[in-house]
C-alpha cells in the first residue's frame, strides 16, 4: 500500500514506453458499462437544459454555470446532461472526481451502516466525536498521509484547509516567540486581541507566489494571486508575494535559462523572508499553479525552497488541494521532489472528497483547546467516502494507471503539437501523470467547441487548456481524447 501511495515503483520508473503501451492496451476497462464514445443528441445546451437553467436562475446565481448535469445517467469518465448528451469528462468537477461517476464501490460505501450513522447523526467532532472517529481516520486519511506526517486536522473545503493551516503557522510562530507552548498569554495580549491590535493580533504574514491560487476565504484569498475577479472589493492582509518561475518550453531546450530563472525566484523568496515588514511565518506553494495557468517548476526549485524555509526557520505549507490523491502519477505531487525533510504541512481537498491538512510536528497542535475549532471540523461522512476512494485506488492500482496513461497521453499530445504548433504551445506536465496542460491563442473558442464534439474540458490562467481526467482514465480514453482534440482543431 505504501509503495502505491507514496512513490512509483522502481519498475515503473524504468519501464519503456512500448512496455507501458502494451500494459495499457491489455488493461481491463474499469467501467464496462461506459459508452464507446460521446453521444451528442442535441445542441448544448439543449431544450431541457435551457428550461432547467431558467428555473434555477430564479433562485440561484447561474452566471458561472457550465452544464446542468444528470448524475444518475453519468457513468465512469462520462458526464450526462438533461438532454441525453453524454460527454467525455476530462475536467471532472474541477479536478474533484477521483474514481468515476457512479462508482459501484463508492455506492456500496454510501449504503453502509457507518455512512448512514454519520449522515443522519452528523457529529461535531471537536466536542462529540463518534466512538469510531479514530478508526475512520487511521484506516482512511492517515493511511494516505504524506511521508513524515502522522496527524491530520480535518476541514470541509480547500479554502478552509489552507486557512486553518495558516492559523496553525501563526500560533506556532507566536508560541515559539513566547518560549514554548507552556508559556501563558499576557494580559496585554488577551485584551489587545479583542480590539484587533498588537501584540494580541500580531503583524505576521504568509508568503505566497504570483499567480497562486489558495482559496476564496479571507486568509486564503490574501494568498491568492491568480485573477483580479477573485479579489476585487475584498479587504486583504498585508502579505507578500514572490515570483514563481516562468519556465520556457520545451524544457530540454532551455535548461540553462530555466535554472537561472528558478535561482532568481529563490533568491527573491529569501530576500522577502528576511526583509518584509510583517514577519513571514510560513511560505505556501502549489506543486503546480493550477488556477493560475498550470505553471510548473522543477524538483530542484522545490528542494531549494525547502532549504530556504529551513534556513530561515519558516514553515513550508504545500497546497495539494488540486494536485493530491494520485493526479500526477504519485499519490502526493510533492513526492516528485525527493525532499530530504518533508514539508511542515500539506493541505488537501478535491479528489479526497474531504479536506484538511496533515502535519508531523506535535508542536503544530495549538497549546490550548478551541484555538483550532469549529462545529464540524470536517465531516465523518466525507472521511468515510475518502476511505472508500482510497480502497478503490489500491484495488485498481490507479496511481500507477495514471502515471502510465499520462505517459501515453503526453506522447500523443507531443505528436499533435508537431502537427498543430499554433494550437498547442508550451505543452507541459511530462512525467506528471495526466496533470497536463498547454497554451492556446484561441483557448476560449477551443473550450466552447469541445462540447459540440462531446468533450467536457476546461482552462486555467489567461490562455491554458488543462487536462484534469479522473484516475480511472485509461488508454482507450486517451486515444479518444486525442481524436476529439484533433477534430476540434479542424472545425
Features:
single chain, 491 residues, alpha/beta, Aspartate Aminotransferase, domain 2, Aspartate Aminotransferase, domain 1, 2 domains, seven-stranded mixed sheet, four-stranded antiparallel sheet, 18 helices, globular, disordered N terminus
Description:
This protein has 491 residues and is α/β, with parallel strands linked by helices. The chain contains 18 helices and 14 strands. A seven-stranded mixed β-sheet has the order 3-9-8-7-6-4-5, with helices on both faces. The protein has a four-stranded antiparallel β-sheet with strand order 10-11-14-13, with helices on one face. The longest helix has 22 residues, at 398-419. The radius of gyration is 23 Å and the shape is globular. The model is unreliable at 1-20 (pLDDT under 50). Keywords: Aminotransferase, Pyridoxal phosphate, Transferase.
Helix/strand class: alpha/beta
What is the CATH class of the largest domain? Answer: Alpha Beta
| Poorly predicted parts | 1-20
Q: Roughly how many Å apart are the termini?
A: 46 Å
Topology:
Elements: H1 2-6, H2 10-14, H3 17-25, H4 47-57, E1 78-80, E2 86-89, H5 92-95, H6 104-110, H7 113-120, H8 133-139, E3 151-155, H9 158-178, H10 187-193, E4 205-209, H11 218-222, H12 228-231, E5 241-242, H13 255-275, E6 280-285, H14 299-311, E7 315-319, E8 345-348, E9 355-359, H15 380-396, H16 398-419, E10 425-428, E11 437-439, H17 443-452, E12 455-456, E13 458-460, E14 464-466, H18 475-490
Parallel strand pairs: 2-12, 4-5, 4-6, 6-7, 7-8
Antiparallel strand pairs: 1-2, 3-9, 8-9, 10-11, 11-14, 13-14
Helix pairs in contact: 3-16, 6-15, 7-15, 8-15, 13-14, 16-18
